[in-house]
Amino acid sequence: MVPHFLKAQDEPIFDSKMVEDSTYRFYLDGDWWSVISYGEAALKENIDYYYLRMRLGIAYYKLGRFRMAIPHFEKANEMNQLEEGAKEYLYWCYIYSDRFEDAGKLSKTFSAETAKSAGTEKQKSIAFFLLESGTKIADKSSLFDPLWYMQGGTGHMLKKQIYFFQSATFLSQNTYWGSYKQLEYYAKVNMPIAKSWCLAPAFHITNLNASPYSNSTYFLGSLNATKQLKLFQPHLNASWSNLFGTSQIQTGTGLKYYPFGNNNLCIAVSANVLVPSTGNAAFHFQHNVSYAPNIKWTFSGWFYHGNAYLFNENNGYLVNSSYDLLRNRSSLMATYSLHRHLDIYTLIQNEQKTEYFNGNNYQFNNFILGIKYIP
Question: What pTM value is reported for the model?
Answer without folding.
Answer: 0.90
